[in-house]
Each structure stands twice: as structure tokens, then as C-alpha cells.
Amino acid sequence: MTKDMRKAPEKQTSWRMRRGLAASAALLLAALAAAPAATAVAAPASPSARTASSADPASAGHLSRRGQLLAVTPVAAHGRAEVVRYLAAVPMATDPVRYGVRAYRLTYRTVDPHGRPTTATGLLTLPEGGGRRLSLVSDTHGTMVDRAYAPSVAEDGRAQSYLFASAGHAVAAPDYLGLGEGPGTHPYMDTRSAVTASVDMLRAARTAARSLGRTLTGDLYVSGFSQGGQVAMALGRAIEEGADRHFRLRALAPVSGPYDLAGVEMPALTDGRVNDTSGVFYMAYFLVAQNRLHPIYKNPAEVFRAPYASRVESLFDGRHEDEDVVARLAPTVRRLVTDDFYRQLTRPKGGLLEALRANDDVCDWKPAAPVRLYAGNGDTDVPIGNARDCARALAGHGVAAPVVDQGHVDHKGSALASLPKIARWFDSVGAARGN
Predict the structure, then answer these.
(1) Cβ(313)–Cβ(300) under 8 Å?
(2) Where are the beta strands (DSSP E) in 149-233?
(3) Does a structural domain hold residue 268?
(4) Global confidence as pTM
(5) Within 90-179, where are the H helices?
(6) Which domain holds residue 350?
(7) Which of 358, 388, 421 is the C-terminal boundary of a domain?
(8) How many contiguous H segments (helices) and E segments (strands) does the chain have?
(9) pLDDT of 64
(10) Would you say 183 and 317 are in contact if contact means Cβ atoms under 8 Å apart?
(11) DSSP3 helix / strand / coil % (the chain, rounded to 5)
């Protein structure tokens, strides 16, 4: 956040969580100062890994091949001690760390929200050790507006990937559409396209791992935070319903996801349960992005007050940092939108209701794999009621999915507390299977 924003410390730290799991760039750089080369390109990979070129004209006729790997670019290498220092600076528990890590940006084919061919990028992280055959963790990230902050691009947005990889898993972290080095704008909170990009990232990761001398067993563990928590639930469902027969869901552990947009998150944005800064940010981003997919407004002035109506769409072009967006929006949701639209937020209809319904059934299924829902009861970005409603929906299908309450922590704190516990749980699930 910008220094002149007079918000409580809890809300400031919660805000930073949207830019990854870094405490701050300064802390991360200090943690890695002993190995300055670690954030540069890693030691050269095999020629086959470096030259899966997207520039090959022959590939132009195969845009519909979802998950096809186009390029693998080494982006980082850290020894075990460096990973420990990195995570400790976040700060996050480091006891799951057993190995160093190597990370690669993958470019791959996928489809856009309308099913048209496009490309996306994501981060594949592998442990330096742990054997040739690896299980895979899918980690889906939280809300971000700056495409340059996506996992495959920004070093200080990789804590989750380094945590799970250093515990002995391969980790696939999709940037999503329109973030990282993918084209276009990000269709924020469009669950369907986030899932297709995530499934295709798993396929690309399988190919890339093989070119790097590792084999993915097909055992899949799924986690994600905030927006990524919602994506993780939907991805788990897609895998169990056969989206890719190679992968088998073994455990599902999302953190602080907005699983119930209409029943919890949207009301919380207007009744004070979501803090003002986050509420304005989420609301503006959601409306602008969803309007490209659902008929919420024809002119921004139908929804946003002046002067925000004239600038709001340009703020979500993927080139603005979070702080810049917040600084140029209203201080509250009530002052961001018109009176008529504010009333509609309490009783959604039309395109707004359509957008909510399109993204609001991620917990309405019966997982065969075990599920744990991690959250914090002090979260003023994504209230814990989302997790409780998700647990109730799963219970309606006969599935007991405990809400693992991390106590009175904020949004960021829920992830910092949860992720090491999830890493330990994934290990215990794998051990019970004899993996």
C-alpha cells in the first residue's frame, strides 16, 4: 500500500498478500543476499528444455492443442539454505523444507473464456532431490492486477511453490490468462477459464518435467489461496470429473477462498465485514472483468461515480500496480458506485446476478479425495463464512470437509499459518498411500 493510506496494520498486511506471499521486497532480497545469482536465470537446462519454441511456424496449425508445451525458461535456482531464508523472511514455518529448488517459466497453449485458442504462462518448480518420480502440487494464486507480479515472472511471488517443491513435490503454479507473459487482459474471477488454464498448466508441467529428467506420477495435490482457493475447489472437481485422465486428485486444501460470492462475499462487501480498501479493489476489479463476459453495464458511468467511471477500466489493463489502482479509486464501495447500483449490490439482478451464478457452485459436488478448508476468523478480505458455507455444501453431498480455523488472523495471516500445515498434510496423505 502507499504510505499515505491510513489503514490499520492488519489491513495493510492483508493487502500485501494479494501481491504474493512476500513480506516485502526488501526482506526477500535480504534473505537471498547470500546468493545474488539465485534470482537470475538458473544453470542452463537441457537443450530440449530450452528450445521448445513458440516461434516455430509449424506450430501455428496446432493452436487447439490444449496444454501443448511451447517453451521452458529457467528462472531461478535456490539451495536448501536459501529456501529456508526466503520462507523465514516471508515469514513462514520452514520445517517442511528438505531440498533446494529449481524453477522454470512454462509457455503453453490453452483457450480463452470463449473457447478460442490462446497461450498462457506458469511456474513449474522442481525439488533438487527427492527421486526421479514426483507427485504434483497445483498451487493457484490470489488476486493480482499487475501481470508482472505473476509467479512465473516475479521472484517474490513464489513462496508457495518453493515451500511445496522443497518438501519433495513438483509444483505447477499457473499465472492464469492475461497475467505473466500471456496475452490479453485477465478475466478476473472467471472460474471456468481459470480452471482450463490450470488443467492445461498441469499438462504442460508433465511434458516439461519429462524433458528435465523427472516423471510426474499422476498423483495430484491441490491448494490455492484467496481467488486461487476458489479456483482450487473448481480444479479439484474438474480433475475428479475426468478433465485429464493422467491426474488423480489425492487431497484438496484451499485457503480463504471466496466460495460463496452471492451468499457471503458480496453481502460482506457492503455490510462492513470486508475492509474498505480491499472492498473497493475487489469490487472494481470484479465488475470491470466480469462485464467483458456478462452484460453488467454498457457505459462505466451506469455503475461507477465520477471521476472513477472515466478511469476504472484502464486501471485493470494488467500494467498497473495494486497501490496505483487503490490510490485512484474511491475510499469506500459506497462512494465508488452509483446509488442505483449500490442498491443492486444488495439485491443482484441482470448481468451482475448472472456473473455471480456463473462462478458460485465450486463446492457443489462430491469429492472422493479428502478435503480440508483452511481459513482465518479475523479475515476482512474473504470472511470465514465462505469456508463454512463451502463445508455445508460439501456436507450436503455426504462429504465431511473440516474448516481448519487459523484463529484471529487476517487474510495474509491465514495463508502464512495454513500453507506449512498443508505441506505436512499432503506429505502424510502421500505416506499413507505408500508414496
Answers:
(1) yes
(2) 170-174, 215-225
(3) no
(4) 0.87
(5) 159-166
(6) 275-358
(7) 358
(8) 16, 9
(9) 54
(10) no
(11) 45, 15, 40
> By the 8 A CB rule, do 260 and 394 touch?
no
Higher per-residue pLDDT: 55 or 295: 295
Q: Model confidence over 79-109: pLDDT tens digits?
A: 999 999 999 999 999 999 999 999 999 999 9
Q: Which residue has the cell 492488519?
A: 10
Strand, coil or helix: 316: coil
- Residue that finishes a domain, picked among 358, 377, 403: 358
Burial class (CB in 10 A: 0-12, 13-18, 19+), 307: exposed
132-142 pLDDT tens trace: 999 999 999 99
- Judged by DSSP in three states, 309 sits in helix
Dihedral angle, C-alpha 82, 83, 86, 87, nearest 10 °: -150
- Which DSSP state fits 304? B
Nearest to 175 by CA among 164, 166, 167, 184: 184
Specify if 286 maps to a domain: yes
Name the residue among 230, 212, 203 with its Cα closest to residue 220. Answer: 203
Nearest-5° angle of CA 284, CA 288, CA 294? 130
Phi, psi dihedral angles at 102 (to 5 degrees): -130, 140
The answer to whether residue 166 sits within a structural domain is: yes
Q: Is 390 found in the same domain as 255?
A: yes
* pLDDT > 80? residue 22: no
